[in-house]
Protein 1
Amino acid sequence: MREMLISRSVISPVLILAGMLLTLSSAEVKAVPSFARQTGMPCSTCHVQAFGPLLTSIGRNFKLSGYTDVNPDRTKFIPITGMIRGSFTHTNNGQLGGAADRFGPNNNATIDEASIFYAGRITSKIGAFAQGTYDGVSNTGALDNTDIRFANGADLAGNRLVYGISVNNNPTVQDLWNTTPAWGFPWASSPLAPTPAAGLFIESLGSQVVGATVYTMWNDMLYVEGGGYTSLPRNIQQGIGTFDAGQNRIDGGAPYWRVALQNNWQGHYGAIGSFGMRANANPQRIQGASTDQYTDFGFDATYQYLANPRHILELNATYIREHRDLNASVGLGFAEKRHGSLDVVRVRSGYTFLQTYSLNLAYAQTSGTRDNVIYSPDPIDGSLSGKPNSQAFTVEVSYIPFGKSTSVLSTFANLKLTAQYIHYFQFNGGFRNYDGFSRNAPGNDTVYLNGWMAF
C-alpha cells in the first residue's frame, strides 16, 4: 500500500461554481456574499485573529446553527465569496528534480490556491459552506470542502437543544473545534516543501467521500454526533476533479462519531472530546482481495481566554491512534505486516493581540509500526528505517489588518500575512543522512511566507 496525497484532475473553476449553484438553486435563497455580510458582524466576532478558520464561541454557535443567522436587513444577496493565497517557500536543502512539476529545487513562489465559495444561508433552517478550489501548483481544480446543514432548536428538560444534519465530503469538516484533521493547525502550509509520508486514514478522504451525520448540542454543554461515510463513485470523483487511482476505497459504509463537553465561564472557554471512524477499505481500489480495516480514535482538548479581546490566549491538543488490519494489502504485496498502528500527537499554543497580531507555537509527532513496504527505504523520498516517525516544531506569526469593527474593510474583505518556520527533529524515520544521498531531518526545515486574501 502506498500512502499519498490526493491528486486532482483538470476541471474549470467556473464549472465547479456552476455545479454548486445548480445543486442549490432549488432552495429559496435568502443570503449575502459572505458570513460577515450576512450577519452584519465583523470577522473578529466569529474568528480569533479576525480571520478563519479559528472559531470563537459565537463562531461555533453560528456553524452549529447551520450558517443561518442573519441580520434582518441583509437578506437580498446570493452568498458568493472568494479567496486567493500566494506564497514563497524556502527549504534548507533543495529538492532533487524540483519541488514539483514546473518548479525549481528551492526558493519557489506560487499561487497556492484560489477558491470560490457558496457560504451562507439558504433558508431559515438550511445553510451551506461549499468550496471550489483551483490549485496553482498542480494547475488543476476540484470541488473542495463542502458542508450543507439543516439545523433547528427545541427545549429538552428545560434546557435548549440544538439538533441538525450535516451532509459533507470530508470527515471532521463539519466539526466545531480546531483540533480535528480538517481545520487543525497549520491552517496553511507550503505545497512546495517536503512533508512526512505517513498519514492517517481519516485524513486521506477529503472530497472523495460523501457522508451524513446527525448532531445535537444540549444546554450549550454536551455535543453528540453520529453518522457515516462512503466513497463517491469513480465517475463522480472524475467529474469533480478528485479521482486518484491509487487511493483506498471505502467498502460499504464507514461509521463516524463525535462527542464533546464544553463550558464558558467568565471569559474562559474549555472543551474536551473524542471522535473517530471505522472503515473497511479496498487498497488502491482493488476489489475481490478481501479488505483492510482502519479504526481511528481521536481525543482532543481546547482552552481559550476570551475575556479581554486585546489579549486572547489559546491552547489545544489532539491525540489520534489508528489501528490497522491490513489483510488485503499484505496479500497484494502492499504491506509487510498485517497488524500495525499509527499515533499522531499535535499541540498548539497561541497568543493574539488586538485580533491583529498573532503568534502560534506548535509541536507535531507521528510514530508507528515499522513496515518496510509501506515506508519503503528510499534515499530521497522514503523512510530511512522503515518507520513512519517524524517530529516537528512550528513557529508562525501573522498580521491581520482588517476584519474588526473599526476596520475600513470590516465586512468587505480581509487579509492575512503570515511567516511560518518548521523545524524537523525527525523526518520519515530518520535523523541524519542515509548512504550520503538523503538530506538529514533539518534539511527539510521550511520557511513559508504567504499572503491570504478573502473577499
Note: The two ends are 41 Å apart (CA to CA).
Protein 2
Amino acid sequence: MSAPILFRRRFEVPCTVEVSHTFESLHAHVALDGDVAVAPGDEVLVHGAPIEVPYGEVRTERRTATVTQATIWERMWTRATGDLEFMELCEFSFSEEVRP
C-alpha cells in the first residue's frame, strides 16, 4: 500500500493487544489484523480503556485500532530526522568520581 501524497488516510482495523508484566518480560505488543503495513510516520491508536496487568501475568485482548497513514512528505521527514531523534532515547551519565 503506497503512502498518500497530500492528505492523511485514516481507517480502522481489528487488532490483538498483548501486555506482559512478568519477571522475564515487561512489554505491550499490538498486532494488526489483515495485511496492514505500518511505515515511518504512521500513527496507530488503540481504542479502549488502559490494560492494567498485575505482576506475574500476561493478558491478551481484542481491540480496534485507528491507523493514520503519513503523507509521502511526512514519511520522508521522519526518515530524515529519525536518526537524530534516536539520541534523545540515550541516557548518558558522568560521574565526578576520580579513579586512581
Note: The chain is about 15% helix and 35% strand.
